[in-house]
């Protein structure tokens, strides 16, 4: 296996530069140099011995153990990625306050689930462990980084697929999001309406049924969604009579 000295010599930098680049996220270096060092590491097959300790903040709302397939897959993928990268398995922590108290044990953290955290707890966590990445949602954009899907494009793709299938009366099922745990915003609903309105469909989407999902997220969610839809449709038919 290649050594740190070999990487430094081929990249034309000092060994300390290579070491700090690979082990210190705050280390400032020219982008060109950073890319050159990383390319040399890949070419020589150099494996950094630094194994960061990563925590996963997995705190479902109200302490419930949600059976949400999406977030369950995220947890599984996190564990698989750690194994494939030969990292220590991440430590799953169920409370933001526990993570704050144990911050000295970790180099960074990742969050999953769409839990709403109090603003004071988010600020305290950032002060103790500032290196955090939120997956899918970001309750504190100015405190932590996030990796999220392109919901606008996803909405467009979904509407296109529904219309291509001949659907004309399309419903949206969703909830609300939060920023810093204080401001609820039905952003998904607004995106749905906007995408449907601006699509060049000449009025094909004749009616948009939009309402918040009020069922508990678990393996029986589908049945309860159907029950809600049936009740709403029955109510609308009664109103028309």
TrEMBL record:
State a single Pfam family of this protein. Answer: LacI
Q: Which domain of life is it from?
A: Bacteria
- Oxidoreductase in keyword set: no
Keyword list, A-Z:
DNA-binding, Membrane, Transcription, Transcription regulation, Transmembrane, Transmembrane helix
- Reply yes or no: does the keyword Transmembrane apply: yes
HTH cro/C1-type domain residues are 3-24
Annotated InterPro entries: Cro/C1-type_HTH, HTH_LacI, Lambda_DNA-bd_dom_sf, Peripla_BP_I
Q: Outline the extent of the HTH lacI-type domain.
A: 2-47
Record-given protein name:
HTH-type transcriptional regulator LacR
Q: Which gene encodes it?
A: lacR_1
């Amino acid at each position: 296996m290649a050594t740190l000295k070999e990487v430094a010599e081929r990249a034309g930098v000092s060994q300390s530069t290579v070491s700090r680049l690979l082990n210190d996220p705050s280390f400032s270096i020219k982008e060109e140099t950073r890319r050159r060092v990383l390319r040399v590491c890949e070419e020589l097959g150099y494996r950094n011995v630094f194994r960061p300790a990563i925590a996963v903040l997995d705190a479902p709302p109200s302490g419930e153990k949600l059976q949400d397939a999406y977030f369950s897959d995220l947890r599984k993928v996190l564990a698989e990625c750690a194994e494939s990268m030969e990292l220590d398995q991440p430590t799953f922590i169920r409370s933001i306050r526990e993570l704050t108290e144990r911050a000295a044990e970790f180099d960074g953290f990742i969050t999953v689930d769409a839990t709403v955290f109090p603003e004071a707890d988010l600020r305290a966590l950032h002060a103790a462990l500032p290196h955090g990445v939120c997956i899918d949602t970001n309750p504190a954009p100015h405190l932590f980084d996030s990796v999220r899907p392109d919901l606008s494009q996803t909405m467009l793709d979904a509407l296109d697929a529904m219309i291509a299938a001949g659907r004309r009366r399309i419903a949206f099922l969703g909830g609300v999001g939060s920023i810093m745990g204080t401001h609820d915003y039905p952003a998904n609903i607004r995106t749905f309406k906007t995408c449907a309105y601006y699509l060049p469909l000449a009025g094909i989407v004749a009616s948009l049924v939009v309402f918040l999902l009020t069922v508990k997220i678990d393996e029986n969610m589908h049945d309860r969604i159907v029950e809600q839809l049936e009740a709403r449709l029955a109510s609308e038919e009664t109103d028309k009579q």
